[in-house]
Write the structure tokens for this entry.
Amino acid sequence: MSSIKESKNILKWSDTVELVDNLRVDEVGLKERVASLASRSIKKDSKLQALNYIISMCDLTTLEGEDTEGKIGQMTAKAIRPDPSNDEVPSVAAVCVYPALVSKAKEMTRNSNVKVASVSSYFPSGQAPLESKILDTQFAIDQGADEIDIVINRKAFFEGDYRKMYDEIVALKEVCKSVHLKTILEVGELRTYENIKKASLISLAAGSDFIKTSTGKISNGSSREACYLMAKAVWDYKTVTGFKAGIKVAGGIRDSKDAIRYLVIVNEELGSEWLNPDYFRFGASSLVDDVLKQIKKLKTNAYQSSYYFPRG
Amino acid sequence: MNEIKKTYKNYVGGKYVRSESGKTFRIDLKNDFYEVPLTSRKDIRDAVVAAKKGYSNWQKLSPYNKTQVLYRLSEMLEGNFETYQQLLQDAGLTKAKASEDIHKAVDTIIWYAGMADKWEQMTGNLNPVAGDFFNISHQESLGVVFTLNSNNQSLNSLLLNMLPALTVGCAVISFNEENSVIALKLAEDINNSDLPGGALNIMSGKFELLIEDVSNHVEITAMAIYKEINNHDKKIIKENASKSLKRIFINPPTMGLEALFPFIETKTVWHPKGR
Amino acid sequence: MNKWEYAESIESSSIVNIDKKYGIFIDGNFQSANSKKFIKTISPSTEEVLSSVTLGNEIDINSAVESAKEGLKIWSKISGTERAKYLFKLARLIQERSREFAVLETLDGGKPIKESRDFDLPQVAANFFYFAGWADKLDLSWNAKGLKPYGIIGQIIPWNFPLLMLSWKVAPALATGNVVILKPAESTPLTAILFAELCQEVGLPPGVFNLVTGDGTTGAALVKHPDISKIAFTGSTGVGKYIQKETADRDIGLTLELGGKAANIVFNDAAIDQAVEGVVNGIFFNQGHVCCAGSRLVLQEDIHDEFVTKLEKRMQSLRVGNPLDKNTDIGAINSKEQLDKITNLVNEGVKEGGSIFQTDCELPQNGFWFKPTLFTNAQPSYRISREEIFGPVLTTLTFRTPEEAIEISNNTEYGLSAGIWTEKGSKILWAADRLQAGVIWANTFNKFDPSSPFGGYKESGFGREGGRHGLLSYLKVQS
């Protein structure tokens, strides 16, 4: 698995400015396109294929103050073998936890392909000095995290200090070195579509391997429109630099139908080479259960109950 | 009697011009006669060129400005009241009828002058479309309009035939037969008004000689016929018009909002409403 | 990893029942015509024969006119509110049976089910709803004297939006108190026939809606009939001119909604990704069989390469194939004849020196198909830049300044629609004022609404359909 990509992907600030200068997005046209993609009818084999993709792209997540090593144990077991009754169901891509639980997660997943991702940089608000964010990130890496999910500095973004937002990501990227860096935009706070595209491009320019929609800690976490715009940003960035970044959608994606619609966006806007865990992820807790139900339904033609599937 | 008679000329592109053919024809009024130009095909071609130029200058004036230009025309008419009265009397009207006609003509101009900056509010509107769109329909003038005017010896009729198209911003080639003397007299007031040259062109002649040329001319966007014409001529006009989908109006209304309908084209603009 | 292919997702056609043969609909009933000739209507995606419809002749048109005269007697006596109720009922019934209509439209015409289901049918119902509401308030529509219905209206509609064009014509005509004789297109008569069945179902008085199927000769007989007081036609500019000529010796109303070669202008300050979508929708919607299609991409030179790269990539994602597949974006070309016309013009474009790009999609064996096509390096003088292709073919022209964009856009005998893409508001309004076109889409394209007037400048015809302005197409102004 080549989830660790070339990290020499930082674009100079002056080039970044050029990239985000005069960004224009038309909301109505954007929504129209996204709605039209949502009308794709995914049935039969293509649906089963999609459901398996989704499982393999999931970052099974728990980010609560009440998380314990016990909870992490349950979740990692499920991550490795989501449906013990069906060997064809793949492992999820990663588990996503707070830094303090990385070592436990690492220990539980050592005999599997499941990665351990840790949030850092004073997730979810990011309202801390850069020095603290660096320590936070360094700690998670020291604990063995394969992937780091940071948040952008929305304070700086809204104050118009894009340079500061960029510099912070560059600094954290330096801490990460070859550890996979996912940068959370928190699109629900950015609100306008131009902001989302701008934040996407700045994050990519500053060295992010992935851009991610949301912390999952606010009510309007992810949206298909945001995913579409991020796909456009990834494409534009690839056109300029040749670097192929990934996208993680997280926050409010609870059922298979919704998740498939995200897959369609990525498939049609970026192409099927993005349809693997190296380039596309779902951050989710309850999504996996619905997908497992749907897979079983396709096999047995009977609608399923969640008590057939293990707790995460 | 050995008085020196005035020879009228066509009024094209803001200038008085003789027919390039040099031909004239005689109009016998009840109490007098006049020689007026017999417009040729080439004169029509020239008039269209002039009208196109006039159109670009006239239609771009603000509606407020158009109102003032037209209002000034009514002032000119009032100023020349007695000249018109005499002409109409020569044409056979009693002094009282002549006077009434001029008063009506002035009122007609006043009505249209005040319409120039209002009709768009009566013909345009926002359309309540579904979805997040701003959608508005408004009207634009058609372009160069040829009007075949009524034969009435009446200043008011003449104005009722030229003003609907002119008010909405079209350039008019106002073509006259038996009422040519009054029409060409009016040209003098037009010339002294602030109407841009070519916006209103006044010509005299025999339409039957020009029917093919006018109805075939692609740059004449519309023809309005304000007199009875026979079916044969109507057929020629419409058949030729069909080559370029020229708009043809036979005896359209001369007053009211509906008088403007033939000369306007609806443009609908859509724009999304979003952030 | 494997490519993710979408499995077929076919809309079942079992919902439609198609008879082997159809007569004409007059006096409120289907009856056999005087003409014993029939036209086979085929599915352009499979070339399968769906049904045979009457090729109406002059005598059939005469019978329809007699029926319409009787219909007019009844229709002119009932109140506007009663007319409104019939139209509201029709609207509701169309909604209820919209799936059936959509499948039939797709079978007969070849357009994707996605479009007949999500665009045509909702718009059809909306048209009847909208004009129903005008029937009892015509006196409030225009501050003009002497507005009266024409009487008997002859309506001739095209094959690109068969039922939608029916609704654009029939709903306002009936709302304003006229009665109708409709001649649907030769290749797409079936939804009009189903609509006639609905008229029976709602108990529309006999003779108010009459339907005579046929070809150009049937249309000509309708145009020539002396008792028709108005012709409303949507179709080619050539036929529009013929109608104006043919009716030259009569005092007759005409609404002509004809061809187009619309410019879709993209300025360098546009929202590029949405502009790409708009350009794609502008030309590939309904296989490009759209009179107002944005068939000329008028592109600012400094963004040419970036835009064309994005456009070609987007075109590659268009799915061409079985129109009944819910994932099909581009269906079948409506007829062999149309396919030949498109093919010839495209070959001509290559000969003239245009650079052609076609997508890699695979085309089905049977039926009529054409790959989404883009021309770059085209000159304004090329036939592909001037003639209406009426297919999925886009021609790119470039400009340097806004003035030049307007000049290029207006350099056509057509004037139906135009598109403007820029995020600068004042430039939109500046351009909209200067574009000689009846419908201007700014930062969007191919949007329609019953309340929004549609119709052209110049040789794209005259008269408007839709909205308050559309009423004037069916009300005679008496001086």
Q: What stands out?
A: Chain A touches chain B at residues 26-29, 31, 192-193 (CB under 8 Å). Chain A has 13 helices and eight strands. The domain at 13-300 of chain A is CATH 3.20.20.70 (TIM Barrel).
